[in-house]
Write a structure and sequence with these properties.
This protein is an all-beta fold. It is built from no helices and 45 strands. It has a six-stranded mixed beta sheet with strand order 17-18-19-20-21-22, with no helix packed on it. A hairpin with a 4-residue loop joins strand 31 and strand 32. The protein is rod-shaped. The N terminus is likely disordered.
Length: 532
């Protein structure tokens, strides 16, 4: 009950005593008071005006006054309903009452309303509309905590980072249930596990069930940060376990679902597939598809790594630095592949080209037409040629019947040695030419030379040879003869055995190392005669 204590109205003493009862279904409430006139209970009619203030004195009102005129007062008691709206009672309020007796009958000029003092504090009953920070809207279908403008069935507003908490000491964990009761709906829940949970204490579980106590866990998060999907005890940061009967463990796709990346786990192996969702078959990537093979652009790789370029493209793979300037490109052109060292700054091939035209290699020559073309110095490192038929150094040049135990060897003291049949024959140093017996020779020891010889040996049987005899003035038996061809030797012939059989005579052998008889074209050469 609320009490309005004795007040004085004009020259007459009027006392009123009031109580406020909560309304059940709306924001209105019943106000009952006791009005006395000159110390006696008043009987008759009266006009009342009720004004709500935010302070017991002064202050301001933000709510429209409520007028209740022509109220019957019997033996000092009157009753009326008041409605200031639900938002009015979010804080402490005081009620100011103005009264006129008797009530104006509608004729003439009404007398003034007299303000009673003091204002009456509005305490308990109206706060059933809004109680200690809990607000319910006019229609009763939205509740707000710390807000008078809820936008949801439950709307919580907090300036604190801890806006809400659900806690319990139950060993079976603390459960937060979300239920949809429409057809096919079920309970979904978050569970903070306790010591009595089979999954272990301290985890966060996401699960569902058909009743509030039924639980089927589908996801678990551990305090160490591990997350399990289909697994309640993940052993890694993320562990995904496929459900029974499925082969696909995970899928990542675009919004339309056509481009997909699929993870499969079978009984014997795992597999990553780039999936063509439109064709519903493996697409552009396969990892471990056949026990360890990787395919990019091919779903059934035939090698440990198989990369297939897309239709219309020439470049199959690219490896580059972070800025994209230094690149190594792998291309498939026509019927051959190509490896290019690419200059990203000039956007053209740079220092290396491998297999550019069916087998050619260019180093420093990006457009080579030779089997091997080097645009710069060549350095090879290794030991001297090995035994007959073997070469351990990589210095030998073979082909057209050559062998692998003849070649060049760079000595540590700056000398260059020439080997044939695994035996050193001659060495070049700063003094000139030195032979294996220790003797040396320089240009002054060249006793004869002749150039632009042309010889036609005619038809030579397979695995046979012919001798060529020349007349060179100054040549003597024992001199060293060097034959220098203008071009390559005619295939499949080799030239060797050059010597001086007599004065002013030079002789050498042209040998057919092939099995078939051949009539080679004439060949041109020069002769140098050196006297040791």
């Amino acid at each position: 009950m609320f009490l309005i204590r004795s007040v004085v109205v004009a020259l007459a003493a009027v006392s009123a005593m009031a109580c406020v009862a909560a309304a059940q279904t709306s924001t209105s409430f019943t106000y009952q008071g006791s009005l006395s006139f000159q110390g006696q209970p008043y009987t008759g009619t009266a006009d009342f005006r009720f004004v709500l203030f935010s302070a017991p004195q002064d202050g301001a009102t933000q709510w429209a006054p409520v007028d209740r005129f022509s109220i019957d007062v019997r033996a000092g008691v009157f009753t009326t309903d008041l409605d200031f709206g639900a938002a009015a009672f979010s804080d402490s309020r005081w009620l100011e009452i103005q009264v006129r007796t008797p009530a104006w009958n509608g004729t003439g000029t009404p007398g003034p309303l007299v303000t009673l003092a003091p204002r009456q504090a509005v305490t308990r009953s109206p706060y059933s509309i809004q109680t200690r920070g809990i607000y319910v809207n006019e229609t009763g279908n939205q509740a707000g905590i710390n807000t008078v403008a809820p936008t949801h069935a439950l709307d919580v507003l907090s300036a604190d980072i801890f806006a809400g908490a659900f806690s319990s000491g139950a060993g079976g964990g603390t459960w937060l249930n979300l239920l949809n009761s429409s057809a096919g709906g079920r309970y979904w829940r978050l569970i903070s596990t306790g010591q009595g949970n089979g999954e272990g204490a301290g985890k966060l579980l996401i699960g569902h069930g058909l009743s509030r106590s039924n639980q089927n866990t589908v996801m678990a998060m551990q305090p160490d940060g591990a997350v399990g999907i289909g697994n309640i005890s993940p052993a890694a940061r993320l562990e995904v376990t496929r459900f029974a009967g499925a082969t696909e463990t995970a899928r990542f796709s675009e919004p339309g679902g056509l481009a997909q990346l699929r993870l499969h786990a079978t009984s014997s192996r795992g597999e990553i597939q780039g999936w063509d969702g439109q064709a519903n078959q493996p697409g552009v990537l396969a990892l471990n598809g056949a026990g360890g093979s990787v395919g990019v652009g091919v779903s059934g790789p035939a090698a440990r790594l198989e990369v297939r370029r897309e239709a219309g493209a020439t470049e199959t793979a690219r490896f580059s630095d972070p800025g994209g300037f230094s690149q190594l490109r792998v291309q498939a052109v026509g019927f051959h592949g190509e490896l290019q060292s690419w200059n990203g700054s000039t956007n053209q091939p740079a220092t290396m080209l491998l297999n550019a035209a069916g087998g050619n290699v260019g180093i420093g020559v990006p457009g080579t037409t030779a089997l091997l073309e080097v645009g710069g110095g060549v350095r090879a490192r290794g030991g001297a040629p090995g035994g007959i038929g073997a070469n351990s150094s990589g210095y030998a040049f073979t082909g057209n019947g050559g062998d692998t135990d003849s070649g060049l060897f760079s000595l540590a003291n700056g000398e260059v040695s020439i080997f044939t049949n695994a035996t050193e024959r001659v060495r070049f140093n700063s003094s000139g030419l030195r032979f294996t017996d220790g003797s040396t020779m320089n240009r002054n020891q060249i006793v004869a030379s002749a150039s632009n010889f042309t010889t036609d040996v005619g038809t030579v049987l397979g695995n046979n040879r012919v001798w060529v005899n020349l007349s060179v003035a100054g040549a003597q038996p024992g001199d060293v003869v060097l034959i220098s061809l203008t071009g390559d030797p005619p295939f499949p012939f080799v030239i060797h055995g050059a010597h001086c059989p007599g004065a002013n005579q030079v002789r050498f052998m042209v040998q057919n190392v092939g099995a078939l008889s051949v009539d080679p074209p004439p060949f041109t050469y020069s002769v140098v005669v050196i006297r040791p």
